[in-house]
Amino acid sequence: MPTSFKMDNLPFSLLTESEQATLRNHLDIAYFQKGEVVMAAGSVPEGVHVILKGRVSESESRDDESGQSHQVYVHYENEDYFGAWSAIKGKAIHNFIAEEETICHIIPTKTVLDLVSTNALFADYFQQNLAAKTEIVEQHSGETQDMAEFMLARVGEGVIRDPLIVLEETTIKEATLFMRENQVDCFLVKRGTRYGMVTGTDLLNAAVVSEMPLTTPVSEIATYRLISIHPDDYLFNALVTMTRQRIERVVVMKEQELIGIVDLTDVLSFFSSHSHVIGLRIERANTVEDLFIAASGLNELIKSLVSYGVKTRFAMDLLSAMNGRVMAKLFEMLIPEDMQPHVCLIVMGSEGRGEQIMKTDQDNAIIHRDGLVWPQMSQTLQEFSNKLIEFGYPPCPGNIMVSNPYWVNSLGDWTQKLADWSSSWEEQDQMNLAIAVDAKPVAGNPALFKAGRNWFFKSLKNNDLFFSHFAKVALEFHTPLTLFGNLKDKGQLDIKKGGIFPIVHGVRTLALEYRILATNTFKRIEALVEAGIMEDKHGRELSEALGLFIQLRLRQQIKRAEEEEKGIDPTPNTLDLQSLHKMDRELLRDAFHVVKGFKKHLESRYHLGSR
User: Fold this and answer.
1) 0.90 exceeded by the pTM?
2) Cβ neighbours around 429 below 10 Å, total
3) Order of strands, edge to edge, in the sheet holding 343-347?
4) Which of 143, 265, 342, 381 has its CA 20 to 30 A from that of 332?
5) Cis omega (within 30 of 0) on the bond before 572?
6) CA distance 512 to 356
């Protein structure tokens, strides 16, 4: 019985002790010379092979002009396994050839099938289902388990304060005494079937600033537009919501029933040892210098989140909210107060989708009221761009910034550009349109942005030619599955072209067609699934693939940025394959299969030629 087999590697660590003993009792060892066929396509496999030493390529035989050739898909090395799918199906689907002297453990097919029939997790792992496989990896990763539990804490797990409620006729004086007795800084007032919130600041402003009589009912000063959250939602989402909405409290509601209040101080206390107080520093910044200091902590926050194994989507949501607040704060500081209601600052591209984590290129624009007279506009917007550069947001190589007059438009000019771009087949116009349709407002008057967006949606109604041409861009870059072997030798691939862009742009096209307002790709997928346009399984697979691409890219971005003097990754979309763990390589390959399938779906849906 071989003792060199490592049972603590996935998926074998999913087996029980008795199942592991069964596996060990049936293990065999085989030796293969360089060039020897380990498993031939169409043959009945002996079982699952696990490499102890050596290197094996997986390939497909193809006929070309010079005769038969082998197209290599991937290489397997120490501790990698292969042939599981072939063993389960009873026939090898590809050729597996030893590229150097190789020693393999072999788990007989019957043993594999017996274990698959008795262990559901083990079976799920071999289904080549990316979503299931990713979930299993996360659940059984000892390094990130504690942090995962921390990040997945629910609102209802200890931070909800019991709601203190007063009657609507309670006076300002009575309410002040009530707050003092209960040592709180806010309470709720019930007015009919509605609840309103009153804070200590509200009472102070009413009595001192507005000089209202102390006998005034507090129902007259309460705020009734309350932001709510469900007790089963993630506490992390509560933090994101409060950051985005610029508030310090949310009410907890369950099926229209008031459960309690969550206070920002309680959330920050819960997260206090994990650097999330940066959001509070941003909110309290009163000068550009204060804001610069607060924003400078964002890169460290990113590193902290990644090092603790926080799921990429959580990190993206929080950092998107933080970046939005930094830009909104700077906007409020630099743009004259009387001009702010007449202009809208939008962010576009990955920032607009909320999928940008590291501080990369600025992609922003201004939409302003038709006929606006603001002589200092150009100078002020140039200062805004310069300050963002100082804050660590690099200038856009394509100059898509508010300092460029091309991206500063009246509402009428903006809608005209959207119309021109959508009717043009020029590459630059198509790129501008793709960036623009991912836009979201972050400061100023959002009604200007919404007016332009709604006009554009209406203009696309029943325009099949536009959607067919727009979708075609998602097929421009080849999926690197068939080139994987060669790329591994070179050591790197462009993960944006090969994986991220096809998903983002394909989903973007579908979202435009069905007038989905969300810009985030994950939320767009959820909306497409909810509307019945995309199957639930398909949606989960796309989300997992995109999340994996972004996560792997982020890890390497951080590493390269740390090695650069300016702290900026010079090749943010390059993925070094040789530095990936074998589990990451396997998940990456599965994710590329998802991309390949999605592109075929787009080809069929929009009647595009095969690529």
Assistant:
1) no
2) 15
3) 408-410, 364-368, 343-347, 440-444
4) 265
5) no
6) 21
